[in-house]
Amino acid sequence: IARQITRRESAFLRFVSSPMIAVPALVKLLPKVLLAGALLRRSASVAPAAASAALMRPARAGPSDEGSAVQALREALTASGLGDASLWGVPLTGESGAPLLRQFLRARRWCVDDARRMLQGTLRWRRENRVDELSSMSNFGEGMPLDKIIGKAGAGPLVLATLPGRAALADVNRFVRWRIAMQEAAIRTLCLTQSSPAFTLVMDVSGLRRFHLSKEARLCTAELSRVMQAYYPDFLAKTLVVNTPPAFACAWSLLRPLLPPALLVKLQLQKGPPPDAIADACGPSGAVDYGARL
Asked: What are phi and psi of 28, to 5 degrees?
């Protein structure tokens, strides 16, 4: 169980950028974390160091020379007939595409072959589903609010998001296309030719209801997490979850000591509206109307 939690860490960091995924994921993970904690405490007298290492083992480190990995990925893409391919307007095999290639290499833990396959699959999936034609201003229907993107934060743009309504969970495909459109809108605000492009997500969960943890919500979550893990690298610098209900805060207090440090750096919870946290995310040049509801 401990190894499974750690193995899923990088995937969680990628798909937590969707406001519909983060809440059910934490709630669903709670029983496993509690059981893992109980098992580790029981085995502490036998092998405390080994048990702790099993839970907190870090992700595989990157190569000593990232440039050689990027060049190897360029050559692999060219050999696969993708030498002229571009993604989000960035030529993948050109010099300006190096930061984007690093994002895909990180998503596959610096395995060049896996990153190449991910890129190939991403380009094919985008073409078949006409992802570039999706607009964040499209009318996706009732219960699907548009994310609000504000200026430039210290780690990139600030994206304000709310939970969807009940009607949004009735159609899995429509739900997934809605969240893809929001993800695409956030990515288009990034400077993908600079090192480690990322945005900060502020997620308002004041509207959390039981239907957000229903079977329909889990189906939407499963399909969206599959898409995010398969076709998107990590563009998330930090997630600030605001207006958390008491039960959610209680679950987080139990989860926090057992979660990997890399996840804790990127995910922060606030019991109420946090103007200070938002101000820190925006930086001195950011402009947020604190009187507006997120």
From this structure: -65, -30
234 contacts: CB under 8 Å, gap ≥ 6: 10, 13, 14, 103, 106, 107, 198
% residues pLDDT > 90 (the chain)? 36
Contact present, 234 and 190 (Cβ < 8 Å): no
* Residue 234 pLDDT > 50: yes
Tokens 């401990």 -> residue: 2
Mean pLDDT across the stretch 226-233? 96
